[in-house]
Design a protein that fits this description.
The chain has 268 residues and is of the alpha+beta class. 51% of the residues lie in helices and 16% in strands. Strand 1 (113-119) and strand 2 form a beta hairpin.
């Protein structure tokens, strides 16, 4: 009799319990897949929202900076012309010239405006911005090196747009002008309190984006192609992420990357 009871019990498990467990496992798998798809779609939508917002921020930034540059450009060109055609028409003593005194004579603001002298090897051999003394500007990326070489060869005056300075994270505008003998480049670097205000507003808006979107830890904006610079201190593109960064620049499209940091999965 006990053997028959055991057989009936096994049959009960096989006919009733096993299908129920199978059904529960199947429903669980469906629920997991559905939840995963919802999360993926949610992350995708969040990325699109943030991407569109950053594009709008960047457009407004460009518009504001263009207006500011239109104000600064004539004065910077005048100063550069005087340096090249008057002060350094003869470059014999250009590497030892007292640039601080020259800056004062030209009425430049020492808190916002600097002069750099760059030799044909790309090295800063004289400057009022001590942090950059001795730096090789050819190391700032192939695009920047080619720009400097073209200025040396042509002797032309070139005015760049505002860029993020890697050391200070401030916007700075640069101009380049080849000396008459083609041996040096006279560079001007100018900060602007108005440009500082623009960057502060951008940082504030990026911070608000992460607060408004649940699950988004932070939003960072990187500028420059060869050596991308973030607006935030301590944030950088790793060597492993550079191919993705370059792909985004080429495709001009959104790209998502899932990585693992400790126990967390991170969406880039």
């Amino acid at each position: 009799m006990p053997a028959k009871t055991t057989t009936i019990f096994r049959q009960l498990i096989f006919n009733v319990v096993a299908p129920a467990i199978t059904a529960l496992l199947f429903l669980g798998a469906l629920n997991y897949t559905h939840t995963k798809n919802i999360l993926v779609q949610s992350n995708h939508e969040k990325n699109l929202i943030i991407s569109d917002e950053i594009k709008h921020i960047h457009e407004l930034q460009d518009l504001a900076l263009e207006i500011l540059q239109d104000v600064l450009n004539p004065r910077m060109k005048e100063i550069s012309n005087r340096l090249v055609n008057e002060y350094f028409a003869d470059t014999k003593d250009i590497e030892t010239a007292n640039l601080y005194r020259i800056r004062s004579q030209l009425g430049m603001n020492p808190d916002f405006e600097d002069i750099y002298i760059i030799n044909s090897d790309g090295v800063v051999v004289n400057t009022t911005f001590r942090a950059d003394s001795g730096l090789n500007f050819f190391d700032f990326g192939l695009e920047h090196k080619e720009l400097l070489l073209s200025v040396l060869e042509s002797g032309d005056y070139v005015s760049e747009r505002f860029v993020i300075e890697s050391n200070t994270k401030r916007l700075k505008k640069y101009t380049y002008h080849g000396t008459l003998d083609g041996k040096y480049i006279v560079e001007l670097g100018i900060y602007s309190s108005k440009a500082d205000e623009i960057i502060d507003k951008i940082r504030e808006r990026l911070s608000n984006l992460s607060e408004e979107q649940e699950g988004i830890e932070s939003v960072n904006l990187f500028i420059v192609a060869d050596k991308p610079v973030s607006l935030e201190e301590g944030v950088f593109i790793t060597e492993k992420q550079m191919p993705l960064y370059e792909q985004v620049l080429i495709d001009k499209d959104n790209v998502s990357l899932h990585t693992r940091e400790g126990k967390q999965r991170v969406l880039h």
